[in-house]
Amino acid sequence: MAEYVTRVNKEKTDAVNKIKEMFQESADYIFTNYRGLSVAQITELRNKLREEETALRVVKNRYAKIALKELEQPEINDILMGPTAVALPKKEAGPAAKILVEFGKENPVEIKGGIINGNVFDVAQMEEFSKLPTRDELIAKLMGTMNAPIQNFVYTLHAVPQKLVRVLQAVADKKNEES
Predict the structure, then answer these.
(1) Cα(142)–Cα(144) distance, integer angstroms
(2) Is residue 32 within 8 Å of 112, Cβ to Cβ?
(3) Which is nearest to 87 in space by CA: 66, 115, 107?
(4) Most buried by CB count within 10 Å: which residue of 50, 70, 86, 161?
């Protein structure tokens, strides 16, 4: 009896390689269920995500599983069920997650989960992740905190001569009244 040999279909291999290339462009992946969205709603969502340099692609679950396995990402078999679209942020995943959560409040799109920095996030964790400040917001807060002592020092140094000028002006005004 002949041994069973699995035949590899070139079209399927090419499709997996294409998904793998898409996944390599991003470090983070946010998986969504897009069932129930109209073409206009998907276009609107893609445009909002595009502003944050994030692509939204519909993927075949089996191909996505193979591509993620080849890229040595964690297994997410429970997330990759049903219709799946994946958001692929080129920079930060936070703004993309925020857009998806906000868009999902008014439209039938729901986050299934994600892979952020190599860690698997479920739906609840993704919603919490979307509430975190972005990297730029954190840097702005840090710079404001670092700037505060210097600003207070400058205001204190500036207050001494300013007070002296006010006292001198008050003395001058009093002498003008007396004369």
Answers:
(1) 5
(2) yes
(3) 115
(4) 86
121-141: pLDDT as tens digits = 999 999 999 999 988 888 998
- The whole-model pTM stands at 0.76
pLDDT in tens, 36-85: 999 999 999 999 999 999 999 999 999 999 999 999 999 999 999 999 99
Say if domain 10-132 classifies as CATH 3.30.70.1730: yes
Are 84 and 98 in contact, with CB atoms under 8 Å apart? Answer: no
* In the chain, beta strands by DSSP E: 29-33, 54-59, 84-89, 110-116, 119-121
Burial class of residue 15 (count of CB atoms within 10 Å of its CB; 0-12, 13-18, 19+)? middle
Token pair recorded at residue 119: 């860690």
Do the beta carbons of residue 111 and residue 101 sit within 8 Å?
A: yes
| DSSP helix/strand/coil, 35 | coil
Sketch the domain layout of the chain as residue ranges. 10-132, 133-179
**CA dist 160 → 101, 149, 153 (Å):** 52, 17, 11
- C-alpha separations of 18 from 22, 29, 52, 100 in Å: 6, 16, 22, 24
Mean pLDDT value across the chain = 90
Whole-number pLDDT of residue 164: 85
